[in-house]
Amino acid sequence: MTPPLTAQQAEARPARERVYAYVREQILRGLFAGGSFVEEEEISSAMGVSRTPVREAFHRLEAERFIDLLPRRGALVRQVTAQELADLYETRRMIEGYAVARICREKIVLPDSMDAILDRLDEIAGSDHFARVELNREFHFVMVRALGNEVLSELYQSLGARQQRVAMRALAADPARIERIRREHRDFLTALRDHDETRARAVLDEHLRPVAGVLSRLPGYVLTGGADELA
After folding, report:
1. What tens digit of pLDDT does each residue of 135-191 get?
2. Which helix (H) or strand (E) holds 158?
3. Which domains are present in the chain?
4. DSSP structural state of residue 77
5. What's the pLDDT at 221?
6. What is the C-alpha separation between 107 and 170, in angstroms, rounded?
């Protein structure tokens, strides 16, 4: 995984890249809450840049579904809904389940970087879920990329924004899941290295199972007749 940029390297990036990274992080951290508006002038002043790079960053964030740009109103931060979380997990199970099958049946060797990512995850302490979510996404992406299918890798990479937003909301709603996720990652990687498809699939299915305790805290979730449903 590419190491984090130093402060000097970050400042050397084009203004639009710095604005993009700043706004994206604030959204993921929940400091720009879903359903709230972010104004160009506000970001321009905070970052010390003109409005042009802010607009460029906003268009990229809209393409990645972090925000919706509304005429004369500004950038509306998208909310993570219960349906989006369920749909994302279903899509990930399809792609990653396929990756598991190929890795196990074709005895594909996984890169050592997957172990290194888990080691770095173990080192993170406290409630700063941002670094956790970034590394979690990288772990799963490295697995998919190991197949050598560039089109599939690009498709999976396109889920990154949703994956990160959903993961941040899920951890914020239920921080107790962190230890369980840590164990699942280790079990999953061990099963993959053993080319044990049955075990790897079982761990993946549990890992990507929408949790009612998280779903119930997201927009679009309703409880009808004693059953959990999505509105």
Report:
1. 999 999 999 999 999 999 999 998 888 888 888 877 877 788 888 999 999 999 999
2. none
3. 7-77 (1.10.10.10), 82-230 (1.20.120.530)
4. E
5. 65
6. 33
